[in-house]
Design a protein that fits this description.
four-stranded antiparallel sheet, two-stranded antiparallel sheet, DUF4238, single chain, alpha+beta, flat
């Protein structure tokens, strides 16, 4: 995978992080497949096999990109969300844990059990 660190503009909201901060697609090898991780209030790690997607993402509207990252991070949280300040408290309160993100290992175990039950 190729990866980049995006430093967001001062005009964009600050990035949030949580106890489940990794943003990923179902298929990392597929077109537009990627993984993203906020690594600071203004820094976003992004990795993808699709270099055109990476290039387009780096040119995207940063305010919209940060808002979408924050939405996914906050909705996927289970216990904690971390912010640099309290400016997004209402955003967090309205979205906290709405779509808890399963841990990667939980998904692997669930798929294995489902496959075993189908065979039995």
């Amino acid at each position: 995978m190729e990866w980049r660190i995006l430093e967001t503009a001062a005009s964009a909201p600050l990035l949030l992080t949580s106890d489940r901060p990794v943003i990923r697609t179902n298929g990392l090898i597929s077109e537009r497949g990627h993984i993203a991780l906020p690594i600071g209030p203004r820094l976003l790690f992004i990795a993808s096999h699709d270099t055109r997607f990476l290039r387009d993402l780096l040119r995207a509207d940063q305010t919209g990109l940060v808002k979408e990252c924050n939405r996914q991070v906050v909705e996927g949280a289970v216990r904690f969300v971390f912010a640099a300040d309290e400016s997004q408290a209402r955003f967090i309160e309205n979205r906290f844990g709405n779509e808890p993100q399963p841990r990667l290992m939980e998904q692997i175990i669930h798929r294995r059990r489902t496959a075993e039950e189908a065979v039995s």
